[in-house]
Amino acid sequence: MNDQDNELLELGKISGVFGIKGWVKVHSFTDPREGIVEYSPWQIQQNGQWREIAVLDGKPQGKTVIARLDGVDDCDQAMLLIGARIAIHPDQLKSLAKDEYYWRDLVGLRVINTEGVYLGTVEQMMETGANDVMLVRSDRQRLIPFTQGHAVVKVDLEAGEITVEWDADF
Fold this sequence. Notes:
By secondary structure, this protein is mostly beta strands. Helix content is 8%, strand content 45%. It has 2 domains: 3-91, Elongation Factor Tu (Ef-tu), domain 3, CATH 2.40.30.60; 103-164, PRC-barrel domain (SH3 type barrels), CATH 2.30.30. It has helices at 3-6, 75-79, 103-106; strands at residues 9-18, 23-28, 42-46, 49-53, 55-61, 64-69, 85-88, 110-113, 118-127, 132-137, 141-145, 152-156, 161-164. The strands form 2 sheets. A 7-stranded antiparallel beta sheet has the order 4-3-7-1-2-6-5. Strands 11-10-9-8-13-12 form a 6-stranded mixed beta sheet, with no helix packed on it. The radius of gyration is 19 Å and the shape is elongated. The protein starts with a helix and ends in a 6-residue tail after the last strand.
């Protein structure tokens, strides 16, 4: 097993308690936010230690998500989890359709334009509402929209490269 297999992907955190039967409020980083409850089991981190816990039920509740966890049967037990980080193993991620990518797979890729000019490396992905944006850094920083068929011509994960239709001077 290599290091990447041991890497956990953080999906959210437990932010509060919901009701008296042990349900917890979850601040989810997934899109859609309620998608976090589809991943079970969760790895929960408390006091620097990770432990596995099964998700028994979950649903959107107002602007948050609530979840019922195995072994958490009352408000007092749920309160002990407030602030705990939620993660999963990478092999729990759903398979994506062709031309769909997890942001984690794009970060670190080299970006070149259609003229073969190296523009930098994807340092970060951002959501802007209209479309996702790559923060590409080399000697300078560029914000390039991740719009496939427009700015993004090709993503080659095996080669570690994204080809874009983007002026090197822009």
